[in-house]
Amino acid sequence: MVREQAFFEAYLSNFIEGTEFTVDEAIRIVYDHAMPPARPADAHDVASTFELISDPVDARDIPGSGTEFMAQLERRHARLMAARPDKRPGQFKQEANRVGSYQFVAPELVRGTLDRGFALGDQLTLPFSRAVFMMFLISEVHPFDDGISRSPDESGS
Hints:
Blueprint: H1 2-15, H2 23-32, H3 40-54, H4 56-59, H5 66-80, E1 98-99, E2 102-103, H6 110-122, H7 127-141, E3 154-155
Antiparallel strand pairs: 1-2, 1-3
Helix pairs in contact: 1-3, 5-6, 6-7
């Protein structure tokens, strides 16, 4: 059940970002490691998302500080975006990013915001509350050029 849940999380999270494969194609990518020659980067996105979600060792890696949290984000992003070197895998953004008129946290404020946000989230005692807070923090800071969203509406300026 866990592997199937991880599969559909990987499949759907990439699908809503525009990386569309049929379920059968995604099954072959994830379970058979059959990368379609015409779309290797897209296939890697699905496969690496699945690998991250289903990695039991990585799932137990719980950061104890803001510094560890940022290192974990950078490591996971590098793994996720390895097939897209143009997106600077594992490196925090250097230019402002936005969606429509919404501006995300400025590049020079990313590390401080994540560090302070981690400290605030670390005060939450309920695991679900902490998870939701950390997801919100990451999505609002949007610390990378890409890898959280790949929608065509996203602009690097």
